[in-house]
Amino acid sequence: MTTPKPVQGNSDFTTFNIRHGFPEALVRGMRSSFLADSDYNHLIQCETLDDVRLNLTETDYADSIADFNSITPAMLQKAAVEKLVTEFTYLRTQTVQPLSAFMDFITYEYMIENIMLLLKGALSGRDINELLEQCHPLGMFKDSTMRSIPTFENSAKGYSDLYTTVLVDTPVGPYFSKFLQESSVHRGTSSRNVLEEVEIEIIKSSLIKFWLEDFYNFCYSMGGDTGEIMCDILKVRADTNAINITLNSFGTPLNEPGMRTSDRKRLYPAVGYLYPEGTMLLADVSDEEEMGRVLEAFPTYSALWSIHANGSGDKSIDDAFYERDVHKLELAFENQFHFGCFYAYVKLKEQEIRNLVWITECILQQQKDEIDKFVLVFSQNSAWRK
Amino acid sequence: VAPTRMAQQTYKAKKKAAEGGHRLLKKKADALKMKFRDYAKAIAETKSGMSSDASSAFFSLTQAEYAAGNFKQKVAEGSMSARIRIGGSVDNVAGVKLPVFTKYDTGAVADNQSLGLIGGGKKIVAVREKFTILLDKLIRLASLQTSFVTLDEAIKITNRRVNALECVTIPKIENLLKYIERELDELEREDFTRLKLVKKKKEVTQKLEDAAKAERIA
User: Fold this and answer.
1) In chain A, which residues have pLDDT < 50?
2) Left (φ > 0), alpha (ψ -120 to 50) or beta: where does B211 sit?
3) Are A285 and A293 in contact (CB under 8 A)?
4) Does the keyword Ion transport apply (chain B) (predicted)?
């Protein structure tokens, strides 16, 4: 007697565990490895980095730092990221479709960053091995692909060759082709010159935008709880990007009236609560006051904006965004039978790594009064739990 | 050295020149020492100011990395065009040429302006500002320190010259002059004694001649 074929289609609570039960159980187990309030308290009170190391040996990070005699913030970050990557790859190998496609989507973000780094390094003629060492480990391609990126010549023809041979095979190839298409339509020049003229950060923002939209469509097509939760999270992410792009473009060439409609507008993702009315209005904003007015129509964002507008001493808008992200991501763990917890796990681990690096840097630089400016993850004392 | 009056005149002139030079050099040494103390004070001030500036600059870097992720590699791996250059010029202090660095803005557009576009942009701008201030102080400090070192060398040289004049040249000349004086006196005395002897002898001869003359007449 053969076992019946697994049920296709959207997994809801009745069929989810058939294929995805084990990975979800793993992720929830890993959730308990996050540093707790008491750990953070101990870390804050450390005087030197050796104390920090001592305290970390009692947490889940004991193995990662066991080989080092003394730690520096950079080493700690590297070790923590490697731990995350090990856990992630382990999870990934236990998954089947469509969860594996979902997890791949998570890695595309890091692939985009790595490609940008390699391209930029190639432009300035850096050594390939150095560049490879600095790539984010979650977003690595095949070694051969990565090595071939910087070997292309730094010329117009070189770029189009680079694209047609190398990038088109990578999972992020479609984003590149969309970007090149859009730029050539917009600028009226051939796609070859685009990669040279446009600043690398702007290319990256455009690629992230396409990735967000793609990811969003994927989650939407999954439907059910996954669709609901992930689409919400991604919309929030898209809005964060849009607001940040607008805010950070003040004072740069991107803010000039001519550039605003043409270039800046194209960087806003086509998903999100701000889309389409908000982004239309944001595209014309030229300074902070106007931005405050535009955001008043959206209650959550106007609350965040007022934090930025009022207290530029204590909290910045980035801190406010981080808090909000952590809030949403923690909620993803409250529900079962959906893929959101995997995404939340990666992102919350990232936040934890950020916190750790922040604490160790503060201790190293003797800036004890700023040390508690980080966002607690899974804490009973979070502001929104009260 | 021949103990003649001419030599005496020559050496008197030399002594005058040496003493004049000694006076001038002492004045120069004093002026340099004053400038030296000023520089030392300025360096101490700048250094103490710099320590707090440096720590705040690096801390703002930490804050920016918290907000924007690791952007250090992006900046380091990218191409950079210098926005600030240093020009070396020469400053003249009491005759000593001191190297001085001045800051020049090349007016090149800042690279990586859209670095924190998706997050943390404000913090990156703050990092840029803080490090520009630090760079200013650093350039000033570098300038002060090189001038300080050169000034130090110049002071040592000048002091050496002053001491040389004071302890070697001028005493030597004075000794020479004294020797010439003595010799001249000695010669005079010799002459004087010789003349006396000759006179005596002449008187004796004259007496004998007078006695012989008187005998012949009588």
Assistant:
1) none
2) alpha
3) no
4) yes
Burial call A160-188: b when 16+ CB within 10 Å, e when fewer: bebbeebbeebebeebbbbbbeebeeeee
Pick the CATH number of B25-159 from 1.20.120.530, 3.30.70.260, 1.10.287.3240, 3.30.70.2580: 1.10.287.3240
For residue B6, list its beta bridge partners: none
Nearest to A316 among B67, B73, B114 (CB): B67
CA dihedral over A257, A259, A261, A264, signed as positive or negative: negative
More confident residue, A273 or B108: A273
Rounded to whole angstroms, how far apart are CA atoms B176 and A117?
82
In DSSP terms, B104 is beta-bridged to: B85
* Count of beta carbons in the 10 Å neighbourhood of residue A273: 15
Cα–Cα distance measured from residue A323 to residue A312, given in angstroms and rounded to the nearest whole number: 16
Token pair, residue A91, equals: 């999870």
- Digit-coded pLDDT (tens) for B186-211: 999 999 999 999 999 999 999 999 99
For helices A16-31 and A73-93, give the axis angle rounded to 10 degrees. Answer: 160
For residues B155 and B36, is the Cβ–Cβ distance under 8 A? yes
Non-local (6+) Cβ contacts of B55 within 8 A are: A365, A366, A367
Cβ-Cβ contacts under 8 Å for B147 (sequence gap 6 or more) = B39, B91, B98, B99, B100
Of all residues in chain B, the percent with pLDDT exceeding 70 is 97
Alpha-carbon span B143 to B146, nearest angstrom: 5
Query: Which residues of A96-154 form beta strands (DSSP E)?
Result: none
Q: What residue type is assigned to position A235 of the chain?
A: K
Residue whose C-alpha is closest to residue A359's, from B62, B70, B122: B62
Residue found under tokens 């939407």: A220
Q: Which amino acid is at A118?
A: L
Residue in A120, A252, A365 closest to B114 by CB:
A252
Nearest CA in chain A to B79: A124
A 314-343 → B contacts, CB under 8 A: 316-319, 321
Helix/strand/coil for A274: coil
